[in-house]
Design brief:
Blueprint lengths: L2 E5 L2 H13 L3 E5 L2 H11 L3 E5 L7 H10 L7 E6 L1 H6 L9 E4 L4 H86 L5 H10 L1 H32 L8 E3 L1 H11 L14 E5 L6 E3 L1 H25 L2 H6 L3 E8 L4 E8 L6 H8 L10 H17 L3 E7 L3 E9 L4
Parallel strand pairs: 1-2, 1-3, 3-4, 4-5, 7-9
Antiparallel strand pairs: 6-8, 9-10, 10-12, 11-12
Helix pairs in contact: 2-3, 5-7, 6-7, 7-8, 8-9, 9-12, 11-12
């Protein structure tokens, strides 16, 4: 049954209350426009019936005030009027939604109430459809952006991989040659007991002992750096792998490690925040049949959200407290049973807002503008995990304890 507010004179109120009350509707009445506004905020009515024939009620002002209120604008506004007054209304866009002529007939009144209910349903459905289309558009744009970015990154990684592989493989020979030359020089030093003045001067100028000691260290550092670059390239290529070939067997631990490697630049300490410590508790997981690139994207969105929450937590704390705060992200994986595994990503930052929490299970709800990108990232993760991989994505958040995302996905889909 509907909640109905009636603003009218005493005689009209009695008629409306009697007719609608018999049908089981919740009816509140008032003869005063000011009282009507207060009652409307208290009741949040589905429909408002306002008497436009009463000289004590400025129905136009009441209607405008109600429509200007974001929480009350959805109420179906019905104007009570007479044929003469209705004809005399100025030719402008009517601020009311419907009208009812006096004297009031029961069937017409009930028809207006039913029309109001249907109108609200259609309006909610229209708004939800708009939100769904907007979210779908955002998802398509993001997916297309990530696809193009993935292809670009993969191409760049491939181009970098060729010269770095050449450098890395040749450093092995450089190290071997340098070792042989150093040994040969040592033999010359032993055999040549009385070197000439020019040789002695050159040894002194170049500090030959330091050069001999440091040369192999430099080559070893170059090999370590080259190996690090190769690892990053391989991680980028694996993270941005194409899913066009369909379902693939994938190591979840490798996916998490590659994602963390790409986010490594966000973990060191910044102004007002200490290092973010990442703790890992990986179980012995079997390979999972999935779209690896998309699952990596879901991990990236969730871990990014955890880092954002930790940064906001540090900013919200007083300077003395911020120094003491130790930001932590805990990533754990385990086998649930023979068909499913779980991945948990938890942080000890601020609790997640209710708007974003709601969007995880219902991505069509409207988030605050400042939270839109974060909510969209989680909505995309929800789509990847729940809709594409037939898994589950749950969020547990509590003030003072942080937020935990729990992902469950099946091992096989075929």
């Amino acid at each position: 049954m509907a909640k109905i507010l009636t603003i009218a004179d005493a005689a009209t109120l009695e008629v409306v209350q009697e007719l609608l009350g018999r049908e089981g509707h919740q009816v509140r009445v008032t003869p005063d426009a000011g009282g009507g506004l207060e009652l409307a905020r208290e009741l949040s009515p589905d429909a408002i019936i306002c008497d436009g024939t009463s000289p004590q009620i400025d129905w136009l002002e009441v209607c405008r005030l109600l429509k200007a209120d974001r929480e009350l604008a959805a109420a179906y506004f019905v104007l009570l009027t007479t044929p003469e007054q209705f004809e005399a209304l100025p030719e402008l866009d009517a601020p009311f939604d419907d009208f009812l002529l006096k004297p009031i007939l029961k069937q017409e009144l009930l028809g207006r109430v039913r029309a109001g209910g249907r109108w609200r349903e259609l309006k909610r459905e229209f708004e939800r459809t708009q939100q769904e289309l907007q979210l779908s558009r955002d998802r398509i744009v993001q997916n297309e952006t990530m696809s193009n970015l993935g292809e670009l990154v993969s191409g760049i990684a491939h181009e970098i991989n060729n010269p770095i592989t050449f450098i890395y493989s040749n450093l092995t020979h450089v190290q071997s040659y340098a070792t042989d030359l150093i040994e040969l020089l040592r033999l010359y030093q032993i055999q040549l007991v009385n070197p000439g003045a020019e040789i002695l001067q050159k040894q002194q100028d170049m500090d030959v002992e330091f050069v001999l000691d440091d040369l192999l260290k430099i080559v070893s550092s170059m090999r370590t750096g080259s190996d690090r670059i190769r690892q990053i390239i391989l991680s980028v290529q694996d993270f941005s792998r194409s899913d066009r070939s369909g379902w693939q067997l994938f190591d979840i631990s490798d996916g998490l490690e590659n994602t963390l490697l790409l986010l490594q630049h966000r973990l060191p300490a910044r102004e007002g925040r200490r290092d973010i410590k990442v703790m890992k508790e990986y179980g012995n997981l079997p390979q999972v049949e999935c779209y690896a690139g998309q699952l990596n994207q879901a991990f990236l969105n969730i871990i990014n959200h955890a880092i954002d929450a930790l940064e906001e937590s540090s900013q919200e704390l007083e300077e003395s407290e911020s120094v003491k705060f130790k930001p932590v992200i805990l990533i754990s994986t385990q086998v649930i049973d023979a068909q499913r595994i779980s991945i948990e990503i938890a942080d000890n930052g601020m609790a997640i807002s209710e708007d974003i929490t709601a969007q995880i299970s219902d991505p069509f709800l409207i988030a605050k503008p400042a939270e839109h990108s974060r909510a969209l990232g989680l909505a995309v993760s929800y789509q990847i995990i729940v809709e594409q991989h037939k898994g589950e994505l749950k969020c547990f958040s509590e003030p003072g304890k942080g937020t935990k995302f729990r992902i469950e996905i099946p091992l096989r889909h075929s």
